[in-house]
Amino acid sequence: METVLVVSAETFSGKSALCITLGQRLRRDGYRVGYMKPLCVRVRRAEEAAYDEDTAFVKEVFGLQESLDLLSPVLLTPRLVEGILRGEEQPDYSGRVQEAFRAVSQGKDLMLLEGPNDWSEGTIVGLPATRVAELFGARVLMVSSFRSPLEVDNILALREAMAGRDFLGVVLNGVPRARVDLAEQIVRPFLEGKGVPVFGVLPQDPLLCSVSVAELADHLQAEILCCPDRAEDLVETLMVGAMSVDSALSYFRRQANKAVITGGDRVDIQLAALETPTTCLILTGNLRPNPLIVARAEEQCVPILQVATDTMTTVRRAEELFGRARFRQTSKIERFESLLRARFDFERFYRALGLKAQA
Fold first, then answer.
1. How far is CA 322 from CA 9, 90, 134, 210, 259, in A?
2. Which residue of 59, 86, 147, 222 lies most exposed, with the fewest beta carbons within 10 A?
3. pLDDT tens digit string along 30-44?
4. Would you list the DSSP string of 228-275?
5. What pTM was estimated for this model as a whole?
6. Which domains does the chain have, with CATH numbers?
């Protein structure tokens, strides 16, 4: 059985996306694929049970039968960290992870392990990426965001930290379109020359950076006033309705799949937005919309979000979310799969693992 640990230098680099899409490809090629996230930091609670959302989503996509307690055996909650710092918590976390691994890897040809936010996280419980790789003899695959050539530092630092372990290589993800040639023609050869295989250079994609209406509502602490059934629709861009109504229509027609942020009292701007392809309206200032707007939005199946903050504050907070949303929509999986088909060297990856790909 092969084990691959997918790691990164920072959060929202694309680890979950890569685990899911690689796992789906391997499964289609006839391999029995398991998944585990040994250490989880972003923990949610539901009915008093703590769980990791990424793990729950992968479990659903892969149809895994194992419990979430086994798939994500160590949940690094604030309470647990405080207990460790006080000397009140000293369980055998390595033993817990190994026991879970033995259970979930039964009958598998390949295990995908998803690392935490960055490769040093988990040191407090003795489970940084280097230790996890050592525990399971894992081959290490890095996925790295690429905003500038300086990202190379993170890649080389991780390769050095993994000295003595099997470092498979790296995937450069979210490369701005204007920097794809730089990544392909300069950065890739440089890394290859340093002994770091580059399996793929994946361009930035608006859909993959998009956020759902529900995620926006949660992040902005907004109330969804209508069309809650469209809360999973995806928003790719933000547009601010602060212009005159004469300019609004032509402005809003420039973008589809957008959220329009405007004052709750700007009925003219709201109507203009609803005349163009709009995913949701975000009304600021804690002002209830005109019933005419609500009726029109319901006709167009456009959710209205009401927030208490002013327009500029709302814009700033909404912008924080883009590119940092979770990977939990079928459309995102399909788009990432298409990127991998076009730009990921599966033949080389399979050969590195000693696996055989379908023709």
1. 19, 38, 35, 6, 12
2. 86
3. 999 999 999 987 766
4. GGGTT-EE-EEEE--S-HHHHHHHHTT-SSEEEEEETT-HHHHHHHHT
5. 0.84
6. 2-206+326-353 (3.40.50.300), 211-321 (3.40.1390.20)
